[in-house]
Amino acid sequence: MLHLVGSPTADFFADLSRLYARGCLEALADVPGYDHVVVWVGPDGRWRFPADLGGEAIGAAEPVELAEAVGLVRGIAPDVALPQLFCIAGMTTYRALLDVLGVPFVGNPADVMALAAHKERTRAVVAAAGVDVPPGRVLRGHPDVDERLLDDAVEAVGLPVVVKPVDADNSTGVALVRNRADLRSAVGEAARETSAGDVLVERFVPLGREVRCAVLETADGLRALPLEEYAVDPQHKPIRDRADKLAGSGDDLALVAKTHDHAWMVADDDSVVPGVQEAAALAFRALGCRDYGLFDFRVDPEGRPWFLEAGLYCSFAPSSVVVMMAAAGGTPLPELFVSAVERTLTRG
Ligand SMILES: Nc1ncnc2c1ncn2[C@@H]1O[C@H](COP(=O)(O)OP(=O)(O)O)[C@@H](O)[C@H]1O
Ligand SMILES: [Mg+2]
Fold first, then answer.
1. Which residues contact ligand 1 via a Cβ below 6 A?
2. Which residue's C-alpha comes closest to atom 26 of ligand 1?
3. pLDDT in tens, 29-70
4. Is Transcription tagged as a keyword (predicted)?
5. What's the CATH superfamily of 207-312?
6. Which residues contact 164 (CB under 8 A, 6 or more apart)?
7. In a designed cystine with 191, which of 140, 143, 162, 167 is the match (CB 3.0 to 4.6 A)?
8. CATH class in words for 136-203
């Protein structure tokens, strides 16, 4: 198994990728029948084949250009790959590269990743399948948007709104705007976090609750897993921000959301479960997901779930959300991993 780790574009995503991939390799060390080979794609665009994912091993590994790396990967001739890149190029182009190289990989294909990385397009696709998405408007192109367009957006969507870049993550550039006067600067901030400058202005879904639901593809069809719920609070924490998800950087990068006061599993008999699981399965099919998918919802005070976004990656680390949900549903990590790999090998 080839583990494709790092980021060709950003140190932050490279650190995040390394954090999860190390967790994965540690957790899978005892699963029999696998040889794990690591490839590190650095923010300099070069590839390294380190002995492990420690900073020292990566530093000691000889960097090679892509053309040479392709030959090395062909020489390794992996049966299967696990893509662990989280930046947009890493999630899309580099998965497509595995297709070109003829290496089957676990998880969602490049085109589905590209779709899910773009919130505007994702919303359109899942809404067409009958999933509720909060009303929204997209402001195009640049931070200096015309006042009239801001007025139009507010009129169409209604305040308060959540402003966000169409294609960022980890709450980067996301803001809750209650007053029209604050909209311009929020849109400008969001526009700076996206290459095309497109910003989504979405109706704020009041609390309620915030939950995520993973869906697995199995031999018997789709299986929705137990939900994870996030700590939010109408007064003190109306939306989740970056500090709720990540802390530190480099070797000290840590996952805040994994601590139990930030997130917990929802009981199976909770009234919120069936509606969210049904919407998650609809979203899975509509987006054309493969192997697994993870879908975020806000649940309004009336108990109605509203789709926020899809996160279609899983690192198979114990801290991966899909892994924690599968474990809560009675499928431990090794079993989840082996069955995903078997599906991958079968489809070839
Ligand atoms: N329409 C909305 N209504 C209420 N809260 C929202 C809405 N959209 C986003 N949020 C809040 O902002 C957070 C980040 O937004 P999200 O769409 O998930 O972007 P990201 O990809 O950065 O995680 C969510 O976890 C949620 O708390
Ligand atoms: Mg999110």
1. 134, 162, 164, 168-172, 174, 202-205, 210, 239-240, 296, 298, 308-309
2. 239
3. 999 999 999 999 999 999 999 999 999 999 999 999 999 999
4. no
5. ATP-grasp fold, B domain (3.30.470.20)
6. 119, 173, 174, 175, 190, 199, 200, 202
7. 143
8. alpha beta
